[in-house]
Amino acid sequence: MNNFKVIIFMMLALLSQNLLAQTEVKKPSEVFEMYFGTFVKNDDAVLSKLNDYLRPTVEGENAYQVDFKTVSRDMMKETTDNFLSAFSKTTADACRKEAEDYFTAMMENFKNGKLSVKDVKIVQNEYIEDQKIAEVNYSVSFKVPAKFSDIPTGDMKNVKPEDLKKYLVQSVQAFKNADKIVITEQKFSLYQLNEGGKTYYWNGSPDEIVAGLTDFYFDSFGSK
Predict the structure, then answer these.
(1) pTM here?
(2) Could you report the per-residue pLDDT of 61-94, keeping only the tens digit for each?
(3) Helix or strand or coil: residue 125?
């Protein structure tokens, strides 16, 4: 009789686990991977998958509308303009292409960071009684140059075009041949949404992923 009770208990436990699993459209780790692919790698195909996943929770609309080509172009122009503003107009005009190549190589290594989800913990949202939060602990590894060539020193307005160009060209190669691995561990929260008897996960501030990673990434290289 006792054995029979144990078997029944195990069957009920297994059934309840299966029912719980069925209510989750995707596991939190899978959802986070879509967020990472969208907002770190700027992958249009992953953005489409993320919007498809969240569409039932936003009345059939797209949860995130991002034109990565436009954003990337605008960011590249602003970043390049800010960098070149430290130099004379003659040097800036002569080195614009090299500066764009420099920032392109830098961001390419960032986008190619390798993601590893360590674990996911489901906790109670202390502010909303009926809501759970999936705390995703993850790590990302980046390839960065172990050492850069020395940037021209002295008054930036007096740097010659050929000197700045040489530095930028060498730095692009340093990124392309990056031989140092740096790893950071981060945490990101996904909030449960219940819709139509199913559980979804989302976060309204996905830029938090990028902010945390870029802070680490840009602190990981430089003139040594």
Answers:
(1) 0.85
(2) 999 998 999 989 999 999 999 999 999 999 999 9
(3) coil
